[in-house]
Specification:
alpha+beta; FAD/NAD(P)-binding domain; Glutaredoxin; Alpha-Beta Plaits; single chain; 628 residues; 4 domains
Length: 628
């Protein structure tokens, strides 16, 4: 059975972004995709909002998208254009780029990161157990994963198999959308009537003076609102012909469709984004009308929020409860998107009363303050995670400031390219994060300009900021280090001891170890030197060697704390019920409290030497079995 630390179901934008995030963190991640290739029939959805472009910039790949798309002011609400060109961001615009190109660029990035994709296979089901997930595939094979993430769309098999409820609202309207050829010259452009909104245009376009100008040749995109809510099945060319005739009086000789699809204003959100070792992201977690172009964008941002958290849990850096913050932070964001898209659909209806409301809203959005608030919301630049009271930066995206570092001029987003957190110190007092130096970057920098956020405007300059891998600020220094250690522990795990290890791990051949489990009460042999170094008088101590892939039997340590010191290799320990995975590298140690179920595993590719001391139960069940 093939195994991965994380299996992602779905190679759309959300799944690809999540795979990239995990790969940057050195997590063994694999993707299951039903399509035989990454090719996507037709152009599908299109467009990136400003915050999504920023997200890509934080990983150093924004230019790949900008090179192929066209910048334009895309944010709008109720038909009113919302200009963000005056916002404090390097990307005060949206990007016109169809989904097939977005997926291709992401797939190329993920391929560079050497993420395997199991193509032409569907997930039929899965079973969770305390240590992982077994995933059944349509080709008869199966995968084993520590964690499974469903990025498999609105009809998610992952969500359904997990039994996660999907409450919301049934559709009130539906549309057909397709890329086709037409025999006759159509009535180009957008049309509104009592049914709703309809459009016929070329797929290819240019941006001229900020306006979309469609080209004279190339494939044609058709969208019509249906007279009644269509069935959930795949629509046919005849369905499209009937829809065109109902709206335009002719089907213009429609033929040769590249693809035909149906979308509606169905609005639903998963009641939970996580069930033990299974998580949801993107359309698997929330579906809504495409009004406002929000879906692809918040899916990518879901992945950005989840990726680094899942990586830290998989690697044993953080407790599994860190994953609960994914739902806590992202569920409210999608809930707001559901609300705004429902409002957008309602305002598309054409009668005198709705038009009066739309005109009133347009007048309000022409004012500067309402325009800024709605534009920041629709572009994703106002996302604010509730991390408590304090400085305005707390929980918000870090601005991409120009900074001066010891290595020369830089930008804040450049510090995030490797998806690692960073403590940016801009003024005294000096800060000490030595306990987290193995996982948090510490950068001394200078910034001479102002600090400004969308909507809020200018804010007080901090003396230091702790920035999470997703670009959101976890802690703000205002002349002190108050709360810093607690925040570091919350988001990035317990500090690593900086005390010197009282033995040499460079020459493990100098150590001797027992070759059999000792009898209860019998002092272990060949460890007196280590006992003396550690300064204890336990009579039950051993140095155990585990070959790659070897595992001790799961047992319960009963009467007192037991300590495991890793001499060479990497120790994986499954502790508690349900088990939580912890990983300790050479030179580290882990304390296990009495009564804690545990299992020791060598998941590495080299021998693991572990010095274990403490008292097992009287029946010997707590003694780690020797595998030498």
């Amino acid at each position: 059975m093939t195994s991965h630390e994380v299996v992602i179901v779905g190679a759309g934008p959300t799944g690809l972004m999540l795979a990239g995030e995990l790969a940057l963190a050195q997590v063994d991640v694999g993707i299951v995709e039903r399509r035989p290739t990454q090719d996507l029939a037709g152009s599908r959805a299109g467009g990136l909002h400003a915050r999504t472009i920023e997200v890509f910039d934080q990983r150093g790949i924004a230019e790949r998208f900008l090179a192929e798309g066209q910048t334009v002011q895309v944010a709008q609400f109720a038909g009113a254009r919302l200009d963000i060109s005056d916002f404090p961001t390097r990307h005060g615009y949206g990007l016109g780029l169809w989904q097939n190109h977005i997926e291709r660029i992401l797939a190329e990035w993920v391929d560079e990161l050497e993420v395997p994709v199991h193509r032409d296979r569907k997930v039929l089901g899965f079973v969770q157990d305390p240590l992982g997930v077994d995933v059944e595939l349509s080709d008869g094979s199966s995968l084993r994963a520590d964690y499974l993430v469903g990025c498999d769309g609105g009809r998610s098999i992952v969500r359904k198999t997990a039994g996660i409820e999907f409450p919301g609202w049934d559709p009130t309207t539906s549309n057909l959308i397709a890329e086709v050829e037409l025999a006759d010259e159509p009535d180009w452009g957008i049309r509104h009537d009592a049914r709703g909104i309809h459009a016929i245009s070329r797929v290819d376009y240019d941006i001229v003076d900020g306006e979309v100008v469609y080209r004279d040749t190339g494939p044609i995109r058709v969208m019509v609102t249906e007279g009644h809510v269509g069935s959930p099945g795949t629509p046919t060319l005849q369905d499209l012909s009937n829809g065109l005739i109902a709206v335009y009086g002719t089907d213009y000789g429609v033929h040769n469709p590249t693809w035909i699809s149906r979308f509606s204003d169905t609005t639903r959100q998963a009641a939970a984004y996580r069930d033990r070792r299974v998580m949801l992201a993107g359309d698997a977690a929330h579906v809504h009308s495409p009004v406002g172009g929000q879906g692809l964008n918040i899916g990518v941002q879901d992945a950005m929020n989840l990726g680094w958290k899942l990586a830290q849990v998989v690697k044993g850096t953080s407790h599994e409860r860190l994953l609960d913050t994914y739902h806590a932070e992202r569920h409210p964001i999608a809930s707001r998107v559901l609300r705004t898209t429902m409002a957008g659909v309602a305002l598309q209806r054409r009668d005198a009363r709705v038009e009066a409301v739309s005109e009133t809203i347009a007048e309000l959005l022409a004012m500067d303050e309402p325009r800024k608030r709605f534009a920041a919301m629709m572009s994703g630049l106002d996302v604010h995670y509730d991390l408590g009271d304090g400085h305005p930066l707390l929980g918000r995206r870090i601005p991409d400031l120009d900074i001066a570092t010891a290595d020369g001029p830089s930008r804040v987003f450049e510090l995030l390219h490797e998806a690692r957190p960073v403590l940016l110190q801009l003024a005294d007092p000096p800060l000490d994060i030595s306990g987290w130096a193995d996982r948090v970057q510490f950068i001394r920098a200078g910034h001479s300009g102002m600090w400004e956020l969308p909507v809020l405007g200018e804010i007080p300059a901090p003396t230091a900021v702790l920035v999470r891998p997703d670009g959101h600020v976890a802690w703000v220094g205002e002349g002190t280090d108050d709360g810093l250690a607690q925040v570091l522990t919350t988001w990035f795990g317990e500090p690593r001891s900086t005390a010197p290890v009282p033995f040499s791990i460079a020459k493990p051949e100098q150590l001797e170890w027992t070759t059999r489990p000792h009898e209860p009460g019998e002092p272990a042999r060949h460890v007196s030197e280590l006992q003396e170094l550690f300064g204890f008088e336990h009579t039950r101590a051993n140095v155990w060697r585990y070959e790659p892939g070897a595992a001790g039997r799961r047992h319960v340590h009963a009467d007192q704390e037991e300590t495991f010191v890793v001499l060479t290799g990497t120790l994986t320990m499954h502790l508690g019920d349900p088990p939580e995975r912890h990983v300790v590298s050479a030179g580290g140690l882990i304390h296990v409290k009495p009564g804690t179920p545990l299992q020791t595993v060598n998941e590495g590719d080299e021998d693991l030497l572990v010095f274990a001391y403490g008292s097992p139960p009287d029946d010997g069940a707590g003694v780690l079995p020797s595998v030498v």
